[in-house]
């Protein structure tokens, strides 16, 4: 059985709906993990993707967050939020907000999490410490599935570049979030929990970046970073036949600032 699984920070499913539908028809993933929906769960365009054969589990609040899993090979055992997911206590708030940043489902022979890891904002900001707590909760959440025999992966926008080779110029990012040793250590802890980084092929350039800022001609100049990742257990990783960043989906006007990452499996 061949299975195509993809992840894409869509940067507003409402604004990018035509792009999303076009891409689903051309790439034909069996499972698509989405992040940064920027819409509430009940506002997701379920019917539009249903017409293309996809069932959807969506989880969003309408703010700068939200995740979903689209599948045409089954959608069962849906879980929203990590079991020990922390909340973020924004300035002036009375209680922490458990943001919709994680959703899991079993899709045919595989189980996946779609995750949108907190950005962190600035080093030593409260949101940065929240990010580290969130990544630790993710590590705990994956332990059982990572050790299992069923193909399993965590896909999404991790907001961390695993190495200096995953940013176009490490000097530009020095002292900023996404590249700090403590964030990278959190990714290393995920790998130690039984997951491995499924590295996409670089189809046009030396490095398979997944995000390019809208400003300063970031995409045409390939000033990118790789923060959209697939972290997989051994049964999943052993079944991978191909993986690539679909740069074509980042081209043109009205696109997300992220490109989809596609992983093909032979199970």
Automatic annotation (TrEMBL):
Its EC number is 3.1.11.2. The record marks 159 as: Transition state stabilizer. It is an enzyme of class 3 (hydrolase). GO terms for biological process: DNA repair. One of its GO terms (molecular function) is endonuclease activity. Its cofactor is Mg(2+); Mn(2+). The record marks 258 as: Interaction with DNA substrate. Keywords: Hydrolase, Magnesium, Manganese, Metal-binding. Belongs to the DNA repair enzymes AP/ExoA family. This is Exodeoxyribonuclease-3.
């Amino acid at each position: 059985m061949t299975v195509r699984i993809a992840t894409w920070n869509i940067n507003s499913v409402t604004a990018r709906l035509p792009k999303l539908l076009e891409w689903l028809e051309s790439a034909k993933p069996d499972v698509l993990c989405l992040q940064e929906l920027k819409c509430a769960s009940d506002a997701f365009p379920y019917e539009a993707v249903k017409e293309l054969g996809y069932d959807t589990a969506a989880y969003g609040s309408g703010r700068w967050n939200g995740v979903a899993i689209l599948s045409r090979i089954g959608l069962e055992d849906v879980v929203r939020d990590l079991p020990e997911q922390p909340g973020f206590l924004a300035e002036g708030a009375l209680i922490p907000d458990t943001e919709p940043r994680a959703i899991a489902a079993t899709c045919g022979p595989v189980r996946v999490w779609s995750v949108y890891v907190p950005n962190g904002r600035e080093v030593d900001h409260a949101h940065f410490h929240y990010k580290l707590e969130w990544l630790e909760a993710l590590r705990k959440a994956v332990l059982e599935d990572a050790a299992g025999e069923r193909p399993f992966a965590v896909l999404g926008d991790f907001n961390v570049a695993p190495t200096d080779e995953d940013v176009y110029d490490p000097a530009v990012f020095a002292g900023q979030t996404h590249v700090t040793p403590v964030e990278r250590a959190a990714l290393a802890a995920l790998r130690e929990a039984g997951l491995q980084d499924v590295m996409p092929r670089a189809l046009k350039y030396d490095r398979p970046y997944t995000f390019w800022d809208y400003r300063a001609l970031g995409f045409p100049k390939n000033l990118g970073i790789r923060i959209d990742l697939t972290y997989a257990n051994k049964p999943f990783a052993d079944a991978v036949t191909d993986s690539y960043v679909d740069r074509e989906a980042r081209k043109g006007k009205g696109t997300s600032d992220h490109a989809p990452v596609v992983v093909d499996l032979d199970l």
